[in-house]
Specification:
The chain is an all-beta fold. A hairpin with an 8-residue loop joins strand 12 and strand 13. It is globular. About 5% of the residues have low confidence. Bound molecules: calcium ion (4 copies).
């Protein structure tokens, strides 16, 4: 039975002091055309005694393969009102979730502006990428994750804003752009970015000896141009049904590649 999940947004909500009192919400679809608010016992709402959940984005994944969809609630650490902590919430059944962030090997201060969840290394288990902090976590297939480090994710790109990261990637998506069966990656940026504003395209070069994926940036050689402003959302879809995946970049200039 489907459910609907809404999030707090410290951007959309006007109070800049804190996130207190602005709660997430979880609705259960009753199958009759109505939604019931089941937030109260879900552990997803703000509760100062248990978990402070402020979320910029949420991603759905069954991280532990138990057949129940879990939630990864992402916060950023860019603004003075940000909490800067994301939470992996394990689905315990009956619309109740449990914070397993640390048990899963994820850091307390995990944060990012955007990202995606997908099977980056093609072993059928969902992995995690957070933009801005530009961290990638590979699923160990035992309920835990391990962090990867990439050459193109220079340390200056991999800190959060408060630690001086001036490369504000935000939108992120994976898809097979070149039809070789390996999932490639597109990143967009937020307005705080210090790079040229444009989408950055990385081609998946396959798995290394550790089972970890490698990527190579090809943005310029495939003709991705700079734009005049941020592009905080990107997507990979076959827009013209010709069998080749296309790139959608959200700016006011409405660019498609
Ligand atoms: Ca699960
Ligand atoms: Ca995987
Ligand atoms: Ca590919
Ligand atoms: Ca196409």
């Amino acid at each position: 039975m489907a459910c609907l999940f809404t999030l707090t947004s410290h951007i959309a909500n006007s109070s800049e002091d804190n996130n207190h009192g602005r709660s997430n919400a979880l609705y259960r679809n009753d199958g009759q055309g109505a939604m019931t608010d089941v937030s109260a016992n879900s552990n997803l709402i703000y509760n100062i005694d248990t978990i402070v959940v402020s979320a910029r984005n949420t991603f759905v994944l069954d991280y532990d393969g138990d057949g129940r969809i879990d939630l990864l609630m992402q916060d950023d650490d860019c603004w003075r009102w940000s909490i800067g902590e994301s939470h992996l919430m394990r689905n315990m059944g009956n619309m109740v979730f449990k914070d397993v962030t640390l048990d899963a090997g994820l850091p307390k201060n995990l944060n990012g502006l955007g990202g995606f969840v997908g099977d980056i290394n093609m072993d059928t288990w969902p992995d995690i990428f957070f933009a801005h902090t530009n961290v990638m976590y590979i699923n160990n297939r035992d309920g835990t994750f391990r962090k990867l480090d990439y050459e193109f994710f220079d340390p200056q790109y991999s800190a959060n804003a408060r630690d001086g990261n001036l490369v504000w990637t935000c939108g992120a998506e994976i898809g097979d752009l070149n039809g070789d069966g390996l999932l490639d990656m597109v990143l967009g940026d937020h307005f705080g970015n210090t790079l040229d504003h444009k989408a950055h395209v990385y081609i998946n070069k396959g798995i290394d000896e550790n089972g970890d994926p490698r990527f190579e940036e090809v943005s310029e050689e495939i003709g991705i141009d700079t734009v005049s402003q941020k592009e905080p959302f990107v997507a990979i879809e076959d827009l013209d049904n010709d069998g080749d995946m296309d790139i959608i970049v959200s700016t006011r200039e409405s660019i498609h590649y």
